[in-house]
Amino acid sequence: MAGTLLLGPRLCPSPATVAAFVVRETASGELPYHLGVTLLRVAAAFLLAMTIGTLAGLAMGRSRTANLVMEPWLVLLLNAPALIVIVLAYIWIGLTETAAILAVAINKIPNVTVTIREGARAMEPAYMEMARVYKFPKASLYRDVILPQLQPYLAAAGRSGLALIWKIVLVVELLGRSNGVGFQVHLYFQMFDVRAILGYTLAFVTVMLLIEFLLVQPLERRANRWRSRPA
Predict the structure, then answer these.
(1) Quick one: how far is CA 231 from the chain centroid?
(2) How far apart are CA 121 and CA 150, in angstroms?
């Protein structure tokens, strides 16, 4: 309210005005549609980044040769600006959904790879030796020996990855998509409609917080349940 009085309702609309806009956009179906499109992109990019990053990190952590070959590319991607990756993806692939999801995933894959690589390096050698002595099948080795030890690292990579991906998705939508929260924010920015910008931002942040508290944190606690707690 103080901001509204100081800057005026156009530059700083009141919470009631923003809430009324959110209710109206929800009733019309516009907000659920654009929010749903963005969340689908977040989910697709997250699954792609986690899958590729986990496989790459596991390979680099367990094989010196793989680490030597992939390390330069990993460093390059870690330091590549997200905006450049997005622009190049749109130029090389086109203004398509594939390019949008790949651009987001590529920006996250290196972070997942680094986290999982450290997890692979930290695995208990005695467990691996036991699996070798008892000639565990490949499926059993990964399911019963490797995966349980990687769970805390997977949880950490997933949590940080989700926080990064939803931010990059908005930039991807702003630059080259015709729907989604990022597109709507860009559209209302051109109209200088701060009320709408705040409304879409508030709705998106609320959904991401719900995902964080109701899904990500419980999964992370489950992955770390074996760790000893301080007295």
Answers:
(1) 34
(2) 10
Q: Which two tokens stand for residue 9?
A: 């309702």
Predicted structure pTM score: 0.83
Whole-angstrom distance, CA of residue 197 vs CA of residue 12: 11
For the chain, what's the residue count? 231
For residue 108, give the nearest of 66, 49, 68 by alpha carbon.
49
Which amino acid, residue 62? Answer: R
Any idea which residue has 């596991």 for tokens? 58
pLDDT in tens, 97-156: 999 999 999 999 999 999 999 888 887 777 667 767 667 776 776 776 777 778 888 888
Asked if 55 and 142 touch (Cβ cutoff 8 Å), the reply is: no
Say which residue the tokens 């702003």 belong to. Answer: 174
**CA triple 126-127-131, angle to 5 deg:** 115
SS (H, E, C) the chain: CHHHHHHCCCCCCCHHHHHHHHHHHHHHCHHHHHHHHHHHHHHHHHHHHHHHHHHHHHHHHHCHHHHHHHHHHHHHHHHCCHHHHHHHHHHHHCCCHHHHHHHHHHHHHHHHHHHHHHHHHCCCHHHHHHHHHCCCCHHHHHHHHHHHHHHHHHHHHHHHHHHHHHHHHHHHHHHHCCCCHHHHHHHHHHCCCHHHHHHHHHHHHHHHHHHHHHHHHHHHHHHCCCCCCCC
Cα-Cα-Cα-Cα dihedral of 145, 151, 154, 156, to 10°? -150
